[in-house]
Specification:
alpha/beta; globular; 351 residues; 45% helix; single chain; nine-stranded mixed sheet; 11 helices
């Protein structure tokens, strides 16, 4: 009879001002079907200015000696990459796998069990050559606010979500972009952990470095992470700009990650300019076609959601994302790596 695959795992949660969501995240991780004595949870606070630290500390004290054990650490480096690298140093060597999560997410009770089980099968078939296994990102439970529902619908649109963490894939498949991974610790050490020069896209950079040394990456739709999205158009636009900025930095390092679709807004502007300055009577066609596509996405979302506001809200959200992301890409060509960061706000950077 085959020996059960129950390696020791640690959930690693970088936080910064997550007071509204961190307890829900911790509760979901503490109530796992995976053996509690094989699981531990580490929260790394990057200097929260709300009461996140107090809430987490109280949560830990109330649990007393219950398993899985929950630990709270200070993250002097403040950002996600620094937090995860610190976890690599702090967590006992007996822990073989790291569960990647953030403070404004929650997971189902069999989250770790399913990830570990699938990872066990993959490792057996590849001679322990899988560096990471990602999950599928889905909306948080409960009623969404007005803007958050627009953002969620925009990310469901094929013209906005891309092939990254919001991709609506199915099954178990190889990927370049696993999200909310179960990471193989040996693979993390072999690539030297996360690159702290990245404030965003640090996970994509890590994945590409793993692939370069021969590790395989997978994702499974059987495991889902419920993630809160942006709740204001201002934070949505700042996020788009930041993602575009760091996307450029990522492509400069890993040229095979370039995606021509991300350049379409700039190509559309260039085409319009060429048509206009050459005297074409059809210079307006690219903009008209784009407007039509946005309108159709709004109508489609309205029908699916049964929310009238999606007729105009979803096109607005997609337009803001395309505009801010494109400007971020342009700025990323010239801007310094530390010259743009919006992760200074409260409430988990969602407002």
């Amino acid at each position: 009879m085959a020996e059960a695959f129950n390696p020791k795992v640690a959930s690693v949660i970088p936080v910064l001002n997550e007071a509204e969501s961190i307890i829900g995240c911790l509760n979901s991780l503490c109530n796992q079907s995976y053996p509690a004595n094989q699981h531990q949870i580490h929260v790394l606070d990057g200097g929260s200015t709300d009461n996140s630290w107090h809430l987490i500390e109280t949560f830990i004290n109330d649990r007393k000696e219950k398993q899985p054990a929950v630990y709270l650490h200070k993250n002097p480096g403040k950002y996600v990459a620094e937090a995860r690298n610190l976890a690599l140093e702090l967590i006992p060597k007996s822990v073989e796998y790291f569960v990647e999560i953030i403070g404004h997410c929650s997971v189902e009770s069999d989250h770790i069990e399913k990830l570990v089980s699938t990872m066990g099968v993959l490792q057996k078939s590849t001679n322990n050559n899988v560096g990471a296994l990602g999950a599928r990102v889905v909306p948080r439970q409960g009623e969404l606010g007005l803007v958050e529902s627009w953002v969620e619908a925009a990310l469901s649109s094929p013209i906005a979500r891309g092939k990254g963490q919001f991709d609506k894939f199915s099954g178990i498949q190889p990927t370049n972009t696993p999200a909310f991974c179960l990471h193989y610790r040996k693979a993390l050490h072999r690539v030297g952990g996360w690159d702290t020069s990245f404030i965003t896209s640090q996970d994509s950079d890590l994945s590409m470095r793993m692939k370069k040394i021969g590790y395989q990456l997978f994702r499974t739709s059987e495991v889902k992470v419920q993630m809160s999205k942006r709740t204001s158009l201002k934070s949505w636009s700042k996020m788009g700009f930041r993602y575009g900025f760091w996307r450029t930095k990522l492509v400069k390092r890993h040229s095979n990650r370039i995606d021509i679709r991300e350049l379409l807004p700039w190509l559309g502007i260039l085409l319009t300019a060429v048509l206009y300055y050459t005297g074409s009577n059809y210079w307006f066609v690219p903009a008209a076609f784009y407007t039509l596509v946005l309108g159709l996405e709004g109508v489609k979302s309205c029908i699916i959601s049964q929310k009238l506001s999606h007729v105009y809200g979803v096109p607005i959200a997609i337009l803001i994302l395309h505009t801010s992301f494109s400007l971020g890409i342009f700025y990323g060509i010239f801007g310094k790596s530390q010259s743009f960061n919006d992760r200074e706000s409260t409430n988990g950077n969602l407002n």
